[in-house]
Every structure is written in structure tokens, then in C-alpha cells.
Amino acid sequence: MEQKNECMLVTKESFRAIGLKWSGTFAEAGAGGIRLVQAEMKSRMNEIKQVVNPHILLGLSYHVTEDGFTHYSAVEVEQMEDIPDGMASITPPTLTYAKCEHRRGQNIEASYNNIYAWIQDRGYSLYKGDITHYEEYPMNQDPQSEDPEFVIMIPIGT
What we know:
Helix content: 10-25%
Radius of gyration: 15 Å
Shape: globular
Largest sheet: 8 strands, antiparallel
Number of helices: 3
Order of helices and strands: EEHHEEEEHEE
Strand order of the largest sheet: 1-6-8-7-3-4-2-5
């Protein structure tokens, strides 16, 4: 059965986020490296002040190299102050994203392939900056879930 996800364009203004930074290979991410960081981030939420939306855990991926990338498991904040020990701050720029929802029961790879095909089919190009993709997870979701739901946002060039 073919999996199709509705896609659309959205513009997200620049925002501030605080969270945990993870760097590794795609294999390490696939083996659960990011899930561990998400679990730690959720357990440390009480350390972060001025959280804008405590129901959404962000996943911001940057600097794809030949075999890896840097990922921030973070929350949006009103101001960058009192950054907890071991955490980092990040400020993504205002960007336009191709956005789709990955639902439970769907194949994650198919969801990503779908959004990249949607971008190409409409003649858009990928953003050439540091951020490669952005995900939004429900905060109440178990990071160890083998069947997660989340929103995928891929920045496009203008």
C-alpha cells in the first residue's frame, strides 16, 4: 500500500531554543542515540525557564556530513537566559518549510521520501544553510516508541 502524507508550505519565524546537543552518525541515530537524548531532555524540562510550548519537543538537525549530523533536542523559549549545565542554545532563522505529519503506523523512511518528492515535484530546492530538517514531537510521547508520530519540516530555498 502506498503511503501518502499531505504536505504544505509554512513559514516559521526565527525563534530561540534551549536543549541538549547530540552529534553522531546516521547509524548511531538509527540505533537510538537521539531517543536517549530526547528522554534526557524530557527529564530535565523543569530546568528550563520561559518555555513557549511545553507540549512540543523539537528536533533540529544541522550540518549533515558524509556520515553524520548534529541534532538538538530542544524546546522553544522566550529568552536565552539561565541555560542549564550541559545544554545549548540555538536560534534557527526565519525559513519556509515543506511540512507534513508522520502518523503512527506509517513508515518513517516513506514519510521522508514523500516530503522530499513533494518538494522536488513542485520545483522547490532545499535550503542551502546549516539546518537540514526540523521535527516536532508531542511531549507526552515515549521517546523509545517504535511507532512515533511527529511533524516533519524540511527547509526550502527561496
